[in-house]
Amino acid sequence: MTASLTELLLANPEIERVEAFLLDVNGIARGKWLPRAKALELDSKGLPMPRSAHALDIWGCDVEAAGLAFGTGDPDGICRPVHGSAALMPWAARPTAQVLLQMEGANGGPFHGDPRAVLQAVAGRFADRGLATVVATELEFYLFDPAKREPTRPPNSGSTRWACARDQVLSVDALRQHEALFDEIAESCALQQVPAETILRENGAGQYEINLTHVADACLAADHAILLKRIVKGTARKHGLLASFMAKPDGARAGSGMHIHCSLRGQDSTPLFAGQPGIASKLLMGAVAGLVVRLPEMMLLLAPHANSYRRFRPHSHAPTCADWGIDNRSAAVRLILGEPSATRLEQRVAGADSNPHLAVAATLAAMLDGIDAGNDATEDLARPLPTEWGAAISAFEASDFIASSLGAQFQQLFAACKRQDFDKMLSRVTDVELDTGLELL
Question: Following DSSP, what letter does each residue of 12-64 receive, concatenated?
Fold first, then answer.
């Protein structure tokens, strides 16, 4: 990976095109393919893209209530390459590079609808206090064999569409089934400087998890999660498989989460979450308290889709209550106490289908809210999470915390996108409903 797209293109004359993309509120890549000659102008000129590209529903349709498309002329914003994000795409059929973009606002500053800008603003508030945010994510996903997919079969009927048919948690033998795929994923991660640390077999049949190494830059950590998703999906496609980060692709199988690990360091890189050996610092307990208190209001950012809420069941690793525990994987917030540099909290509510930038932004904002309020997680702060999509949308819309920490404009934009998703989903009658009631009722 090189510092600029231009440098990458000059060092690799075989590159024919560049996939330039920004991220919408759902974390979906939206962008353009540029021929080499056009791509060579990108660093100096930027790339115009409709501002409304950030505010789309999950089907990729404009959201009128978001206020960026209809009635505005749907103007462009200038997008600039994110420094260091230009990289080769080894899974592409022809020599191709990619570059992540960030949109500027009308005045050349941050654009309120860009998820990277939302996260940068939150991280900036920590920096103003002399604090560095240290973040890493863990992403779970399923591999499917498209040749065996049977979409008309009921989801719990023992379909053979899984790329692996047995539940074999932590089985190293199960990893060998897709050894060539995982080797290529690791090679692509190294090529794109995505710090993949470990890969493991998860609970569900055909379910895997890749852990990323922590970095002292929250936005870079979220970028890594996005790039990892692209690597996994693109490489799986090359191997004839479908990789999905959907939260709950099968009601009988484990859901897929995105666990977010966070800690803080001082200006001299001193870890700040560890007190005495094996004891959490007051700063950590304040961050935990803030996160537990604010989780219900930020639930929509961690579980943004209808399917997201199928993960949350009692006696599972997807919590239904905002609570915390020491080394407790059933809790919403898990405290990991050890060496000072490894002492951290883990937010375990977010699904793999969430936008990493927004999930990390909300997590950090809640932590800072608790720190600033002087809260203490030793009190009984547990409260139920909204495990129904409509309730989560309403809680997000009504939250003064979301408005003040992530911006009122962003709050309105994101809520509008999710309301459109919600309304469209209500108009889709499922096959289960028809099987249940069409003749009987």
Answer: -TT--EEEEEEE-TTS-EEEEEEEHHHHTTHHHH-EEEEGGGGSB-TTS-B-G
Min mean pLDDT across 27-31, 162-166, 193-197, 370-374 is at 162-166
Residue 46: HSE in the Cβ half-sphere, 13 Å Cα cutoff: 12
pLDDT band at 153 (very low <50, low <70, confident <90, very high): very low
Give the SS3 label for residue 416. Answer: helix
Determine the Cα–Cα distance for residues 288 and 296; give it in Å rounded to an integer: 14
Structure tokens, 70: 């209809």
Which residue bears the tokens 């999710």? 418
Nearest Cα residue to 357 out of 9, 18, 3, 29:
29
Q: Residue 159: which pLDDT band, with cuts at 50, 70 and 90? A: very low
Residues 183 and 279 sit within 8 Å (Cβ to Cβ): no
* Per-residue H/E/C for 306-325: CHHHHCCCCCCCCCCEECEE
How many whole angstroms separate alpha carbon 67 and alpha carbon 60?
16
d(CA 140, CA 235): 16
- 385 contacts 278 by C-beta, under 8 angstroms: no
**What phi and psi values does residue 44 have, to the nearest 5 degrees?**
-85, -35
pLDDT of residue 264: 97
The 8 Å CB, 24+ separation contacts for 60-63 are: 60/28, 61/420, 63/416, 63/417, 63/420
Q: How far apart are CA 366 and CA 350, in angstroms?
A: 14
pTM of the model: 0.93
Max CA distance (Å), the chain: 69
Whether the CB-CB separation of 364 and 371 falls below 8 Å is answered with no
Q: Does the pLDDT at position 162 exceed 80?
A: no
Q: In the numeric block, which tokens belong to residue 157? A: 């009927």
Q: What local confidence, expressed as pLDDT, does residue 166 receive?
A: 52
Q: Report the alpha-carbon distance of residue 303 to residue 310 in Å, rounded.
A: 10
User: pLDDT tens digits for 199-229?
Assistant: 888 667 788 999 999 999 999 999 999 999 9
Do the beta carbons of residue 258 and residue 137 sit within 8 Å?
yes
Q: What is the mean pLDDT of residues 407-431?
A: 96
The pLDDT value given to residue 206: 82
- Per-residue pLDDT, 154: 32
